[in-house]
Amino acid sequence: MGYQKYDDDMLQQIEENVDLLSYIEREIPLKRQGNDFFGHCPLHTDKTPSFSVTPDKNKFFCFGCGRGGGIINYLKEYEGRRFDEAIEQAAKLANVDLSTMCQSETVMFLKRLKRWSQDKHEPFEHPILPEAEYAQYIKEEIPEWLDEGIQQKALDVFDIRVDESSNRIVYPVRDIKGRLINIKARTRYKNFKDLRIPKYINYHEVGVMDYFQSLDMALPAVKEKNEVIIFESVKSVMKAYGWGYRNCVSAEKHTLTPEQVTLLARLHANIVFAYDSDINYNQPDVKKDIDKLKFITNVYVINDPYKLLGGEIAKNSPADCGQEVWEELYARKRKVV
Fold first, then answer.
1. Domain 8-102 is classified in which CATH homologous superfamily?
2. Are 8-102 and 126-207 in the same CATH fold?
3. Which of 1, 80, 177, 328 has its CA 20 to 30 A from that of 43?
């Protein structure tokens, strides 16, 4: 049989349909001690029986060498079978037609996605804030962001304001329905490190990151283009907005939560990761997100092999060096396979 894909549910079904005790007793003499059965482990010197089988759990364990598990692990450890061979033999013992159980990686991911959505932990309910709370902040020109290349029309659309009492630039955080769930702020003090104040803060508890910044506004364009572009910051989203790219969102960081992965999966759109130049898409915390998503949709990444962004040291976003650079990088986006 060629290489197949199995998930935990399939393997569990196979193992539950095999009487492990009856199978092992054919090879290893076992004696009952309480609820378990004990015998000598054939894989090491075993003067006192240390190999045990627990029928209630349909599992084995050797207290001498630490081997344990169900029928599949037994076939691997004690009969020397390869993983696929062990599964094939276990399926025969369980009278299971393995050909009907092999699943694609897409199906496997969707099953995991369902388990995430049914997680037993209490879901976090974002409090819906009154619009008046954000309306108290001042609308005024923000020269430092204009100097960075963000157009005034984008600042207006994204409703960027100023909290004069704390000298911060503020912007609303909204869920996918456009409801206000937080207010995020960036200090205007250039020496914020010397002052020991954070660069960014949220005015309310963040809770679960089950949203993307500006997705409520981008959703119509995401559906129209069948594509969502993910930046690390809302400033990059605003720059791209000024150039006509309306299908952009911000993850506010370079890793995704399971809730954000679930949200992306439900968009049924192609995904373009446009992370800053210091982020390597092969680093484990980033790669795991991409590996999850590439089985259900097309995933692309924006690389900068010619260092148009200044390389890793510069830590620039793909939108930080102007529209011409952005469009060249976007045109060269690479599909992840």
1. Zinc finger, CHC2-typedomain (3.90.580.10)
2. no
3. 1
Helix H or strand E encompassing 36: strand 36-39
Domain 104-124+209-337 = CATH 3.40.1360.10: yes
Helix (H, G, I), strand (E, B) or coil at 300: strand
Provide the CATH number for the domain formed by 126-207 in this structure. 3.90.980.10
Query: Distance between CA 74 and CA 90 in Å, rounded?
Result: 10
Instruction: Return left, alpha or beta for 221; rule: phi > 0 is left, psi -120 to 50 is alpha, else beta.
Output: alpha
pTM of the model: 0.68
* 215-270 confidence digits (pLDDT tens): 999 999 999 999 999 999 999 999 999 999 999 999 999 999 988 998 998 898 99
Query: Do 214 and 248 touch, CB atoms closer than 8 A?
Result: yes
pLDDT for res 117: 53
Domain extents in the chain: 8-102, 104-124+209-337, 126-207
Q: Phi/psi of residue 48, each to 5°?
A: -105, 125
Contacts 24+ apart (CB under 8 A), 68-77: 70/15, 70/18, 70/20, 71/14, 71/15, 71/18, 71/20, 71/23, 72/11, 72/14, 72/15, 74/20, 74/23, 74/24, 77/43
Sign of the CA dihedral with 112 first, then 118, 123, and 129 last? positive
Which secondary structure element, helix H or strand E, spans residue 37, and what is its range? strand 36-39
pLDDT digits (tens, 9 = 90+) for 54-112: 998 899 998 888 888 899 999 999 999 988 889 889 999 998 877 665 554 555 555 55
Dist CA 255 CA 72 (whole Å): 35
The three-class DSSP label of residue 261 is: helix
- Residues 174, 128: Cα–Cα separation, whole Å: 9
